[in-house]
Amino acid sequence: MMVVGLTGGIGSGKTTIAKMFHELGVPIYVADNRAKYLMETSTEIHTKLISLLGPEALDKNGLPNRSFIASKVFKDKVLLEKLNAIVHPEVAKDFQTWVKLQKSAYVIYEAAIIFEKKLQDRFNFTILVTAPKDIKVKRIQGRDNATLEEIEARMNNQWSDSEKIKLANFSIENVDLDQTKLKVLSLHKILLGLVNT
How far is CA 152 from CA 112, 140, 141, in A? Predict the structure, then answer.
């Protein structure tokens, strides 16, 4: 089965693009959502979290203490790398299991840091979602109620669009939703044409 990676920086609107593909019948694997699910349910991940960050990494219910973990890793790139090294292999295994259950021409794996993690070779093709920085910031502020400083810190953990676009097979600038829908439909037709080539 053809596997397409869908990525984009925070605030680019990659989730919106993923929904558009889903409406066209394409199964979407949202890596962040599955990572959250696995973080909550995997005892293996829980043990490794405690080893990495101490007992405060889990709350009194034995679930990941998200605010504590975020406060540690977003300011420390080394810790963030170590956290990713715990979660990402579990997500990769989960994805392979999920792919086997799909019956479509192609599937999409949605994740923010495909290029940063050098994962592009796992996919037949990659799609990068872009948007101007001011639009990204507005979207994040509207969604997360985050400060400009917090948004900048998150953006600094990701590559710029100009770095990523060199590696992507396709890109969609997501500014005007009607235009974006047309681009998604056009790209869907292209990908269907590539399935059997």
Answer: 16, 11, 11
